[in-house]
Structures are given as structure tokens and as C-alpha cells.
Specification:
single chain; 6-stranded mixed β-sheet; globular; RNA-binding; EC 6.1.1.4
Length: 870
RNA sequence: GCGGGCGUGGCGAAACGGUAGACGCAGCGGACUCAAAAUCCGCCGUAGCAAUACGUGUCGGUUCGAGUCCGACCGCCCGCACCA
């Protein structure tokens, strides 16, 4: 009997409407069931969704639907990371207000997401540019300010000359702005900062307690935080020619054990000592000036030649008052790491060695590699940084570097030259405070005022929100808030006098650092309802791209701690489980120098060679490498097109099949068609069987055919459950193909089957449909209905496998001779080793291999294998 | 340079130390059809008619047994990189 083909175009909107009407995915905070919070990184409303979104949200939706079916109270919200530069760029290019542009994009993208049939709670939706949201963010800012977690200081900043704004260190990639790609310059500005460094130690050590995070991400964060243990050591300046008001220079070192190999001290160009020394030395002043300016771009700094200038000053060795070393100003010493001063031990640090060779400074090895001869050991052009034994080091001789570290620390901590210890242990971090000031319009205004009388004053809470003005112009570069005629004018909440508003807005990474908390009570008067937020958080499963491994995830971890400090949350870690999915990649096509979109390309295959024809011209074009879908290479496939021609279920299924979710998936037309074939096949198998299942008996019988069906279904249930639990969607997909393959034959002959066999078939069909439902929810509803099941499949409980059906009565074991498989042996499931061994040894081919001899050894692993060693 | 990951058919990939290649894509053969599409059945690592042999980047090791564990090397991908 032929059935109608499944028509997703009709079915998908219909089921989406039914779910909506039933408010199936609206989550009540007090609903029964263990809470489970699934979250995918919310999108930036750039205009349209792309395949990366489809993959991300398909995965999250599988988890959400699965957990819901398992009886959890699932929170699965969606919102918009809506502030940011592209809206301003659009405003400049198209004369459209950023707000209009943003909300129009949101409307488009919301409709696209809805067409995917995601089980989202849209009642909790918000955009970070909603006044409601940034109002709460301003409250948070004032709380942070009050607690000393936000502060203002003058600092060198990364200035993006194209976007005309400041960038955080994290936003500078290879010396270029992460968004504009322009070489970043260094400028000095007064900026707002969050004290992320206060939490450095905790942010680092807590990584050890995030077992459900990818090791890769934890490692990247560890490196970013960059903890190093060292010693602060004060070097007195030789009294002979020191500057009047500076007596000493403090250096930070992680290798105090190599102090006896010291041959110079170097300070940063910005160091007070540089300035003092340059005062009476025009040449030095010129060097300092050049070094400070020298290469404003970070890229230049990295490749810049390492240069120094001898100040003529001498520093006294902390362990020998009669030993002095020259003090240099060096362009590679950074003022904002450690103390801005180092001592150089050329033998055991490559950079110091290069420097010493260049300026003819002594190179004295003090760590002897194992096996080397103390009398002859010398470093050539390569510094020795390995383990060994200290020598040429007086009281440290014979110690290991670690022991030497401790010995020096002890000696200098105790030494008391001027009423203070000469050194102290210190832990330094590479992590810097998070600069959040942005000189942009389309962001959350920083709610402070500048009063001539009172200085920087927080806006009064009753005056919040500080709203963005609507009437702005983007005719000129720079920050439109700065030149707004009236917006800046305000009243000082302290003295009542006139004050000017801060015109910096917050980095958009602030917006995304707490949105997951806001979702738990999106209408709360404060930033969160702490009780509700604490009940939902941490997010059980967070899913997004690896590109956020440092920025967004580190900021969110900090913000969660900051929100704890300000009483809005009571936890440290926002995301218990993190999954970073791979990208969607596609072949590229090129017509001469022009990239061609896949929709304009037809691929033909003959004799293993593939040729591409451009549809619009009929000409043959080149097939290029497989790359991340991007507008620049035009290798993008629009999700709308796919959904229109195949349906959302096909797109979802394809995204989940084939590639493991953490790896890149290659989007191919053939793959999508394969996925769609399965959609139709599943529909055919179920819908053609359905009429025969209506009259099924209540209980399945235990005849072999019925049991085989039941076993197949229950095994798949156990396997798919396990796979989804581990986010191995590709394996779950494979298992479902297997199940359908196993059911198709028996289902085709149901018209002659006994009622009991039909009962087994019915059970298998309902299990199959429910297993498929998280991935292809519309098709599942359609099948569910065809099977005559009541209620919605999306509300049906997850199938539970019966353990009895997962066991076999008999097992077939491979029999190996000397580790090579030579045959099989079928034994009862519970057979003991001795019985199996006896049976195996009686096999013809085993006897033949033995040739009358006794086996050297027989390995029997019940349920696994038999290996006869002859 | 440092750190991490990965190398398995034509392709995407499976495989608690236990039958390598499940499942899908592509391909090949057949059925149905006037024909095509769709669908169904079968084949599909290499060599060989076959029995069989050889096969998980290379070389070595551990083991009754290695894609999996250990060592060395080769290649690719990703992250970080004046951090004292």
C-alpha cells in the first residue's frame, strides 16, 4: 500500500502551532521535576541565522527535549546579544537607526529560529539592548562600583583606529582588532575597569573543578590567566651616581636561583627610573622616547628588535654588596607586568642571552646540566633552561634550582638592610583587569556623572535607567554621545550642581556575562531574583563555539563571582557542563577571481572526477578547498532555503549525523538529500505499518519474531539514551538508522502477523518515534499521530529499556588461534570459562591447528573472545 | 619556540586492550517502469578465480591479543607567545 510522501512544509508549521498553543515549552520555575538548564550561546542579531546557528541550536534542542522527556523541569531560553558595532556601521552606511536595524534583525531571526521547531521558552526572551535589560546592568555596575569591583584609572589602551574604540587585551588578535582587523595602536586614556585580577587565583584553581568542561578550554584559560610564582627582589642603586630621589629598583623574578648568574638589570621605558635617568641624558631620553613610541601597533612590538640603553647607573647585587651590575633601559621590558624591571641571567634565559651578546655583557652559567663538566660547560647561542645542579653560586652550589629558589628566598626574606626584608615571595598573573569602557553609542551607558565639585559620582539609583538618546547622528567618526547637544547635561546627585554624563558605554562582553542569570527571572525588578537564580544555576549544559573559550567564558566566570559578592547570586561557576561544537564548513567555488555561492553551482561526477558548473552562466568553474562558511568566500548555504525545500527536521538530522559534534561538519547537498531520504523512509515505514498496529494485542508475545523486534527497539533505546547523555549525536543517529533497518522488513509483512507480534511491532514503533523525537520533532509528532497515540510526542515520556531484553540467551564468541580469528563458537550466555574452553578445544579447526599437541595457553574472556595459543 | 589535539576505505566516520571499517555518502549490479524519478534487493579496504595473505601515518616495544597502551619519528590542525 502506497502512502503519501511526508510533507514537512505543511506538517512543521502545524506542529509548531500546536506546541505553542499548549505552551509546551514555557517553563515554570516551580514546576515539578529536577531542574535542568540547557543553554546555547545566544546569537548576535546580524541579520539572518546561519548554519552554525542551526547546528548549535539543533544540538541544544536535542538535549532539552531529551531531558524534558526524562521528566526534568527544563529551562531552555533564547535571547539576543544585541548591542555592538555592526548596528552602528549599518547606521552609518544605510542611515538607519541602530535600534531599528537591530530589532528588525531580531524579528527576522526569531522567525527563522521558530521555523526550526526549537523547544524554546520564548516567554523569557529579551535583547541586551532592551532598556529593561541594560537598566539592570546599570544596577549591577553601581553595585560593583560600591564594592570596589569597578574602578577608573588612566591606562595605556589598545586603540582600534578603524572602529574608533578601545579594545580589551582579549580582543586583540595578532596585534589587530578582533572585529575591524586593523592594527591596534597604544593610547593613554582614562578608562573604567573591572577587577578581574582580584579573582585570578580563584578563576585559575576553580578550573580544576570543572570536569564537564573540555580540557582544551580549561588549558586555554589557564594559560591566559598565566600564574607564575616568583620573588620580588630589591636592588640598591650604587650610591656613586644614583638619581637623587630613587634609592633602589625592585625586580620580579621566577628564577632567583640564578641570581649568581646575573649580569644586568633592565627597566621598562615607562619605569620611573628610566625617566629619572633620562633627565640629565638627552641620548637616553631620546631612546626612552623612541622605545615608548616605537611601534604603536602590537604587531610591531612583537617583531621589534630587542634594544637596550645603558643608563650608567649600577645596581648592587642583593647577595653581595661588593658586586654591581649595569642598569639598562630595555624596550622589551613591560611596565605593566611584575614591577617593570628585571634582572638578566643570560646563561639561562634566551632573551637575556641575546641581549648580553649584543651588549657584550658577561654570560656566567650557574645551572649545570646533568652529565656536563663544570670546568668546561658553557652556553653558546642557546640558553640552558632545563633542570640541573647549581654551581658558580656560592652557598647554593649543589642544590637543584627549586632548592636554590627556596634558599635565596629564605636568605633575602631574612636579610634586613634598611628595616625591610630585601625580598618577598610573590605570585604574578598575566591576566590584566578588564577594561570595559567603549567610546561607542550602541552599548549600555555607564551610569556615572562627572561633577566639577564632587568628581566622579555614581548616578542615583532612582534615576536609573540612564537611557540612550534616540536623536543621534553618525555623520562624523567618534562617539555620538560625546557630541550630543543635551544628553550629557545632568545634575549631580551629591551636590545638586551641574554635572556631565559619562559617555563611555560598556563593552558588549559585559552584556553576555550575566544574561544566563537574567533568563531565570527575566522580569525581576533587580538584576536577578537570587532565590530563583540560585535554584536554576549553574547552567547544566552550555553549548557554543570554541571561539569563546577565553573571552566570554572567562568574563562570565568572573561576573558570576562579582554577582556573588554583590548578593545577586550564590555560586561561583555559571556553567557546569560546557560543550564546544565544531564549525559548519563547505566547499568553495571560484569563477576566475570571483567566489560563487553553492546555490549557483551544480556538481556532476564522472569516473571519480567532480566538475562544477555555474548555473547562471553555464560555464565550468573551479572547485576550491573546504572552509568555514563565510560571506567573503560565499560558501554559505541559507538555512531558510534548506528548510523551505527539505524541512527543518532534515536540516537538524543532517547537522547531527555524520560528524562528531565537536568536529567540523562538511555541508554537502548529497548529505542533505541522504538525510531527507531517511525522513521519508521513516515516515513510510511507520505510516505503512500503522494500520496493522491498530488491532494489536495488549501484550507482546514471547515468540522469537516478536522478541527480536522488542530486543532491537529496547537496545536502541538503551544505546540512544546513552549517546545523547554523552552528546554523541552522530552515534545516536547511526543507531536509529540501524533500528529502522531492522524494523523495515518485519513491518512490511505485518498484514499476516499474529496479534501478539503486532503488539511487539507497535511497541517498537512507539519506541522508535520517541527516540527520534529530540532530533526530528515534527516528523515524530506526525508518526505519533499516525500510530494513533494520544497526546503529543513532545510531551511523551522517554522510553525505558527493559534490562531483560538487553541480555542474550546465547553469545557468539570469536575463536582465535594465536590472536587471529579462525572461527566462531556459540555458547549459552552464562557458560563458565571451563565449559567454553572445552567446547572451543573440540572445534575442528582448533583441533587441526593443535595437531594433537596440547595448547600452550587458552585465553577465555566470557562474553568477549577465545584465544588458543599453540 | 611552548602547549594541546588529530592521522582508520573514494569520502564523513564507528570500534570497554578482544571479530577493524557499525552507520551514512558516493559508486557498482539487479528488480519494478515504455522510460525516468522514487522505492526495493544485493555488492562495496587491497591483492587473488579461490583458499588465503596483507591492511588503522612510520619504526620499535609491552601483551595470549594493539587502531586503542608505552617510546622515537613524520605529517596536519588549533591555541598561546617579549610575561621576567
Amino acid at each position: 500500500m502506497a502512502t503519501e510522501r511526508y510533507n514537512p512544509k505543511a506538517a512543521e508549521p502545524r506542529w509548531q502551532a500546536v506546541w505553542d498553543e499548549n505552551k509546551l515549552f514555557e517553563t515554570r520555575n516551580d514546576a515539578p521535576g529536577e531542574k535542568y538548564y540547557v543553554l546555547e550561546m545566544f546569537p548576535y542579531p546580524s541579520g539572518r541565522i546561519h548554519m552554525g546557528h542551526v547546528r548549535n541550536y539543533a544540538m541544544g534542542d536535542v538535549v532539552a527535549r531529551f531531558k524534558r522527556a526524562r521528566g526534568h523541569n527544563v529551562l531552555h531560553p533564547m535571547g539576543w546579544d544585541a548591542f555592538g558595532m555592526p548596528a552602528e556601521n549599518a547606521a552609518m552606511q544605510n542611515k538607519v537607526h541602530p535600534r531599528e536595524w537591530t530589532y528588525a534583525n531580531i524579528a527576522t531571526m526569531r522567525a527563522q529560529l521558530k521555523s526550526m521547531g526549537l523547544s524554546l521558552d520564548w516567554s523569557r526572551e529579551f535583547a541586551t539592548c532592551d532598556v529593561d535589560y541594560y537598566h539592570r546592568q546599570q544596577m549591577l555596575f553601581l553595585d560593583l562600583l560600591e564594592k570596589g569591583l569597578a574602578y577608573r584609572r588612566k591606562s595605556k589602551v589598545n586603540w582600534d583606529p578603524v572602529d574608533n574604540t578601545v579594545l580589551a587585551n582579549e580582543q586583540v588578535i595578532d596585534g589587530r582588532g578582533w572585529r575591524s582587523g586593523a592594527p591596534v595602536e597604544q593610547r593613554e586614556l582614562t578608562q573604567w575597569f573591572f577587577t578581574i585580577t582580584e579573582f585570578a587565583e580563584d578563576l585559575l584553581s576553580a578550573l580544576d573543578h570543572l570536569p564537564e568542561w573540555p580540557e582544551k578550554v580549561r588549558l586555554m584559560q589557564r594559560n591566559w590567566i598565566g600564574r607564575s610564582e616568583g620573588l620580588l627582589v630589591r636592588w640598591r642603586l650604587d650610591a656613586a651616581n644614583k638619581p637623587a630621589d630613587i634609592d633602589e629598583v625592585e625586580v620580579f623574578t621566577t628564577r632567583p636561583d640564578t641570581l649568581f648568574g646575573a649580569s644586568f638589570v633592565a627597566v621598562a621605558p615607562d619605569h620611573p627610573l628610566s625617566k629619572a635617568a633620562a633627565a640629565g641624558n638627552p641620548k637616553l631620553a631620546a631612546f626612552v622616547e623612541e622605545a615608548r613610541r616605537g611601534g604603536t601597533s602590537a604587531a610591531e612590538i612583537e617583531t621589534a628588535e630587542k634594544k637596550g640603553f645603558d643608563t650608567g647607573l649600577r645596581a648592587v647585587h642583593p647577595l653581595d654588596p661588593n658586586w654591581t651590575v649595569p642598569v639598562y633601559v630595555a624596550n622589551f621590558v613591560l611596565m605593566d607586568y611584575g614591577t617593570g624591571a628585571i634582572f638578566g641571567c643570560p646563561a639561562h634565559d634566551q632573551r637575556d642571552l641575546d641581549f648580553a651578546r649584543k651588549y657584550a655583557l658577561p654570560v656566567v652559567p650557574v645551572v649545570l646540566p646533568e652529565g656536563a663538566d663544570a670546568a668546561t660547560f658553557d652556553v653558546g647561542t642557546e640558553a640552558f633552561t632545563g633542570e640541573g645542579t647549581l654551581f658558580h653560586s656560592r652557598f647554593l652550589d649543589g642544590l637543584t634550582p627549586d632548592e636554590g629558589f627556596d634558599a635565596v628566598a629564605k636568605r633575602l626574606e631574612d636579610t634586613d638592610l634598611s628595616g625591610r626584608p630585601q625580598a618577598k615571595r610573590q605570585v604574578n598573573f598575566r591576566l590584566r583587569d578588564w577594561g570595559v569602557s567603549r567610546q561607542r553609542y550602541w552599548g549600555c551607558p555607564i551610569p556615572v556623572l562627572h561633577c566639577e565639585a564632587c568628581g566622579v559620582v555614581p548616578e542615583a539609583r532612582e534615576n536609573l535607567p540612564v537611557r540612550l538618546p534616540d536623536d543621534i547622528d553618525f555623520e562624523k567618526p567618534g562617539n555620538p554621545l560625546d557630541r550630543h547637544p543635551t544628553w550629557r547635561q545632568a545634575t549631580c546627585p551629591q551636590c545638586g550642581g551641574p554635572a556631565l554624563r559619562e559617555t563611555d558605554t560598556m563593552d558588549t562582553f559585559v552584556d553576555s556575562s550575566w544574561y544566563f542569570a537574567r533568563f531565570t527571572s527575566p522580569h525581576a525588578a533587580g538584576p536577578t531574583d537570587p532565590q530563583i537564580a540560585n535554584a536554576w544555576l549553574p547552567v547544566n549544559q552550555y553549548i557554543g563555539g570554541i571561539e569563546h573559550a577565553i573571552l566570554h567564558l572567562l568574563y562570565s566566570r568572573f561576573f558570576t563571582r562579582a554577582m556573588r559578592a554583590t548578593g545577586h547570586l550564590d555560586l561561583d561557576e555559571p556553567f557546569k557542563g560546557l560543550f564546544t561544537q565544531g564549525m559548519v564548513v563547505h566547499e568553495t567555488y571560484r569563477d576566475g577571481s570571483e567566489w560563487v555561492v553553492p546555490a549557483d553551482v551544480s556538481i556532476t561526477e564522472a569516473d571519480g572526477a567532480r566538475t562544477a558548473t555555474r548555473l547562471s552562466t553555464g560555464g565550468q568553474i573551479a572547485i576550491g578547498s573546504i572552509e568555514k562558511m563565510s560571506k567573503s568566500k560565499k560558501n554559505v548555504v541559507d538555512p531558510d532555503d534548506i528548510i523551505a525545500s527539505y524541512g527543518a527536521d532534515t536540516a537538524r538530522w543532517f547537522m547531527l549525523s555524520d560528524s562528531p559534534p565537536d568536529r567540523d561538519v562538511i555541508w554537502t547537498e548529497a548529505g542533505v538529500e541522504g538525510a531527507h531520504r531517511f525522513v521519508q523512509r521513516l515516515w513510510r515505514v511507520v505510516s505503512e505499518a500503522a494500520p496493522h498496529l491498530a488491532g494489536a494485542a495488549e501484550a507482546p508475545s514471547d515468540d522469537p519474531a516478536a522478541t527480536a523486534l522488542r530486543k532491537a527497539a529496547h537496545r536502541a533505546a538503551a544505546g540512544v539514551t546513552d549517546d545523547i547523555e554523552r552528546l554523541a549525536f552522530n552515534k545516536a543517529v547511526a543507531r536509529l538508522y540501524e533500528l529502522v533497518n531492522a524494523l523495515a522488513g518485519p513491518f512490511a509483512s505485518l498484514d499476516t502477523a499474529a496479534p501478539e507480534a503486532r503488539a511487539a511491532a507497535r511497541e517498537a514503533a512507539t519506541i522508535l518515534v520517541r527516540l527520534v523525537a529530540p532530533m526530528m520533532p515534527h516528523l515524530a509528532e506526525e508518526c505519533w499521530q499516525a500510530l494513533g497515540e494520544t497526546g503529543l510526542c513532545a510531551a511523551a515520556p522517554w522510553p525505558v529499556a527493559e534490562p531483560a531484553l538487553l541480555r542474550d540467551d546465547e553469545v557468539t564468541l570469536p575463536v582465535q588461534i594465536n590472536g587471529k580469528k579462525r572461527g566462531d563458537l556459540t555458547v549459552p550466555a552464562g557458560a563458565d570459562k571451563a565449559a567454553i574452553e572445552a567446547e572451543a578445544l573440540a572445534l575442528d579447526f582448533v583441533q587441526a591447528a593443535l595437531g594433537g599437541q596440547a595448547p600452550k595457553r587458552v585465553v577465555v574472556v566470557p562474553g568477549r573472545i577465545i584465544n588458543v595459543v599453540v
